[in-house]
Amino acid sequence: MVNYKHDLKILAIIEMVIALLMAVPTAMAVYLGEREALRGFFVAYAAIFLFVSVAFIISFKAKSTGMQRRDGYLIVTLTWIITTTFSAIPLVASGAYESFSSAYFEIMSGFTTTGATVLTEIESLPRSILFWRSQTNWIGGMGIVVLFVALLPALGVSGTILVNAETVGPTKDKLTPKIKNTALILWSIYLGFSVLQTALLRLGGLDLYDAVTITFSTMSAAGFSVKNGSIGSYNSAYIDAVVTAFMLISATNFALYYKAMTGRISSVIKDGELRAYLGIWAVVTLLITACLAITQTFSTLGQSLRYSAFQSASIMTTTGFSTIDYQLWPSFGQFLLFLLFFVGGSAGSAGGGIKVIRIAALFKMGRSQLKSRIHPRGVFQVRVGQTTLSKDLLISISTFFGVYILTGLTGSAILSLGGADLATSISASFLCLGNIGIGFGQVGPTGNFSFFAPALQWFCSFLMLVGRLELFTVYVLFTGHFWRR
User: Fold this and answer.
1) What pLDDT does 154 receive?
2) For the segment 386-402, what is each residue's pLDDT rounded down to a tens digit?
């Protein structure tokens, strides 16, 4: 049975912390004299205060009866929906966005680290609004709920259920016996890499504002930019190289960094998913580089490598930055980028998508089936690196893949009803579901989602949420079994 009142209290506390995080862009609005933006933030504070007040009145006498799995699914899903609602208020109340549907789409894209936008002209918006937009990327990268797990034990709540409902990937790495400590370690590593990237970008000549906002969107594998031309606006091979490196870092399983820090280097080197992840990126990068060089798309081999490495990393890690319009590349190069839509980052990383470990497992399952045709009585284990995958996990992976593809195709059909062409409809659906950010057609590197009707923008927001929470956390709420006692 769902403990609604106690769940409501947790939601209220989470929104209080979101209000605290909103203080940074609010202070920027004051410092920069952006009055309209400041008004937008104060309207959001008022709305959060009203919600928290009502929530605490309703849940004042709520008792903790122990968190159940149903509570975890409900809290996590509602956290993302409610947090996006309040966080979108500054965008529309300041006048920066014309409608709440577009503002909600933008912030859902931010928190889910999708990076898709409805904006055509970005640089004319208040800097504090753009900062908040990028900050939502960084908060969502490691997970909204994971950020607050350290607070929950004081409320008599087990954070393990919430973390398992929110974190991505078919496997969960519990770095320490206490989930609270695991969450702190993950966020510490995340923060450390963020500081390092900001410092390196500053060395490249960027001011603090640009360096921080780029870092927000890189380490979260998101892709929002404060420039109209994304990373390409800086026209710097150094900036491209730094961002490429940290996109790959952000989409690597963060548990591996902890293992490396604690001296378990050999287990990191032997990690099967890491090898597959870097191998896929390297092979695709080299193939696209060869394609670009042969067709003389760029004047030098170095430029071909620079742009292919960046765009391959950007799409595979589901970051969604761009440095150039790859839709002008030869079809073979575009096709390889499209294939990366169905790979994604590593499990336990900030990256979205299907995840490398699932793709590797599917290929290993296929090979196992071929062997069983030759040796019907044989027993073949499916291994990714040093890890043997159980039968239940393989069934889970297969089910996830099937539901993921079905969701993406259904989304493509629905988006096509808005009049978009086939390439736009398919890529828009899968880039939202995979939290990738950029695609093909009208949602390519030079396009955006502004042409979609408000109803379809709401639908895209739903796809982003479903993809970020890996389908079943959200879908389970639509089953009758969830609501039965």
Assistant:
1) 45
2) 777 788 888 888 999 99
- Is 353 a domain residue? no
> How far, in Å, are 4, 55, 86, 478 from residue 75 at the CA level?
9, 14, 16, 15
Cα gap 37→19, rounded to integer Å: 15
Q: Which pLDDT band, with edges at 50, 70 and 90, does 376 fall under?
A: confident
Answer yes or no: is 175 within a domain. no
C-alpha 317/C-alpha 314 separation (Å) is 6
Q: What is the pLDDT of residues 218-229, one digit of tens each?
A: 999 998 999 999
CB of 329 within 8 A of CB of 444?
Answer: no
Tell me what the mean pLDDT of segment 59-87 comes to: 82
Q: Is pLDDT at 67 greater than 80 in this prediction?
A: no
Q: How confident is the model at residue 350 (pLDDT cuts 50, 70, 90)?
A: confident
- Please, which contacts does 394-397 make with residues 24 or more away whose CB atoms are closer than 8 Å? 394/361, 394/365, 396/170, 397/170, 397/358, 397/361, 397/362, 397/365
Q: Is residue 114 one of the residues assigned to a domain?
A: yes
371 in any annotated domain: no
Q: Which two tokens stand for residue 402?
A: 């099937």
Domain count, the chain: 1
More confident residue, 122 or 481: 122
**pLDDT range class, residue 161, cuts 50, 70, 90:** low
The full 3-state SS of the chain, as one line of letters, equals CCCHHHHHHHHHHHHHHHHHHCHHHHHHHHHHCCHHHHHHHHHHHHHHHHHHHHHHHHCCCCCCCCCCHHHHHHHHHHHHHHHHHHHHHHHHHCCCCCCHHHHHHHHHHHHCCCCCCCCCCCCCCCHHHHHHHHHHHHHHHHCHHHHHHHHHHHHCCCHHHHHHHHCCCCCCCCCCCCHHHHHHHHHHHHHHHHHHHHHHHHHCCCCHHHHHHHHHHHHCCCCCCCCCCHHHHHCCHHHHHHHHHHHHHHCCCHHHHHHHHCCCHHHHHCCHHHHHHHHHHHHHHHHHHHHHHHCCCCCCHHHHHHHHHHHHHHHHCCCCCCCCCHHHCCHHHHHHHHHHHHCCCCCCCCCCCCCHHHHHHHHHHHHHHHHHHHCCCCCCCEEECCEEECHHHHHHHHHHHHHHHHHHHHHHHHHHCCCCCHHHHHHHHHHHHCCCCCCCHHHCCCCCCCCCCHHHHHHHHHHHHHHHCCCHHHHHHHCHHHHCC
Domain interval for residue 43: 1-167
